[in-house]
């Protein structure tokens, strides 16, 4: 079924709008908020204000880049949660207002589902599959049995994987978000420079990254700034090794437990090159099909909201204008 869908995402610190037509994604505009860099993390109050400022121009730009007009749009898909309440409200209110004025339906999308369905933008993964969703706010192993039929197999008990990258990177003086910088620096570093702890490695499908953060803090507290700078690549490689090692170890366990033949990665951290490399190795070794979204569809974006909206629309899942955002799952 063909339907022109406008996707809107505003759950955290990126305002994004995308247009999806019969021919696929036509635009995916992401306005990142630089205001948070100087605070070393997202300040919720500033985030919602920045969304308010940029949302209408972001939507306009997405329509323009898709060479279409609002008249052609048949439904609006918007992130309903989880996320920061103030930020979500901006996107949801904007979407509802626009839907009301155009007389078109609105579709509320779960942000975590959308990360998984980002895999359906360029490819068509076969159900059932296991998806490792790793972002700044979440770390989950999900058994996707059928469209919107998910079982959470395991998740983090404390920090998310992206949060671990960001917080440890901050200790080492890297700018926020540190994940992509760590990834880049790690590529020329020695992964066995220092062995950082991997919590719950032998146990179940849950994760824990707060111990790693504390261990990195203790390890680095008596080192000089110059020493850290001189060993930055090796430190980034060793920390990435600890994080991605435990992620893929558990992914492998989830595959064994469920018997799936297909695996997928999702979320901002799935852009990480070491994670991709280890997942490719697991897939080759175990004869699995691996799906990973294009890097632009890994971090928060509205294209993943639009594609999830399309899948919901195809099964008649629309929302009324009484739809409200939700902050947590
Ligand atoms: O999915 P996302 O954009 O937002 C959330 O929903 O949280 O994920 C953002 C997270 C940040 O923690 C960021 O540092 C991390 O993804 N990230 C990476 C990489 N690119 C983004 N972490 C490691 N390596 C990367 N290449
Ligand atoms: Zn996200």
What portion of residues is helical? 40-55%
**CATH architecture of the largest domain, please?**
2-Layer Sandwich
Q: Strands of the biggest beta sheet: in what spatial order? A: 3-2-1-4-5
Oligomeric status of the shown chains?
A: single chain
| CATH fold topology of the largest domain | Nucleotidyltransferase, domain 5
Q: Give the ordered list of helices and strands.
A: EEEHEHEHEEEHHHHHEHEH
Q: What is the name of the CATH class of the largest domain?
A: Alpha Beta
Count the strands? 10
Q: What structural class should be given to the helix and strand makeup? A: alpha/beta
Task: Tell me the domain tally.
Answer: 2
- Per CATH, the superfamily of the largest domain is ATPase, nucleotide binding domain
Poorly predicted parts: none
Ligand kinds: 5'-O-[(R)-(carboxyoxy)(hydroxy)phosphoryl]adenosine, zinc ion
Distance between the termini: 30 Å
Q: What's the gist of this structure?
A:
The chain is an alpha/beta fold. The protein has 2 domains: 5-117 and 298-314, Nucleotidyltransferase, domain 5, CATH 3.30.420; 126-292, 2-Layer Sandwich (Nucleotidyltransferase, domain 5), CATH 3.30.420.40. The protein has 10 helices and 10 strands.
């Amino acid at each position: 079924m063909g339907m022109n869908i406008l996707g809107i995402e505003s759950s955290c610190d990126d305002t994004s709008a995308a247009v999806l037509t019969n021919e696929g994604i036509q635009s995916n505009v992401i306005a990142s908020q630089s205001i948070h860099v100087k605070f070393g993390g997202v300040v919720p109050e500033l985030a919602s204000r920045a969304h308010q400022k940029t949302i209408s121009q972001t939507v306009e730009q997405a329509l323009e880049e898709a060479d279409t007009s609002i008249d052609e749009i048949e439904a609006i898909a918007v992130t309903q949660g989880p996320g920061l309440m103030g930020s979500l409200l901006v996107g949801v209110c904007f979407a509802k207002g626009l839907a009301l004025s155009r007389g078109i339906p609105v579709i509320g999308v779960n942000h975590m589902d959308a990360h998984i369905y980002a895999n359906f933008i360029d490819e068509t993964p076969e159900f059932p599959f296991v998806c490792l969703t790793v972002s700044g706010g979440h770390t989950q192993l999900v058994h996707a049995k059928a469209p919107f039929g998910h079982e959470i197999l395991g998740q983090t008990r404390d920090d998310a994987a992206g949060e671990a990258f960001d917080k440890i990177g901050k200790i080492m003086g890297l700018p926020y978000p540190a994940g992509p910088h760590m990834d880049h620096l790690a590529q020329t570093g020695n992964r066995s420079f220092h062995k950082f702890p991997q919590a719950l490695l032998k146990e179940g499908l849950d994760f824990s990254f707060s111990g790693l953060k504390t261990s990195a803090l203790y390890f680095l507290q008596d080192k000089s700034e110059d020493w850290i700078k001189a060993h930055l690549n090796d430190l980034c490689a060793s920390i990435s090794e600890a994080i991605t090692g435990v992620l893929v170890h558990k992914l492998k366990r989830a595959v064994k437990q469920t018997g799936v033949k297909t695996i997928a990665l999702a979320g901002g951290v799935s852009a990480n090159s070491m994670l991709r490399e280890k997942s490719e190795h697991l897939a080759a070794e175990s004869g699995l099909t691996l799906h990973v979204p294009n890097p632009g569809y890994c971090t928060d974006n509205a294209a993943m909201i639009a594609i999830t909206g399309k899948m919901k629309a195809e099964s008649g899942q629309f929302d009324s204008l009484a739809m409200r955002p939700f902050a947590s799952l």
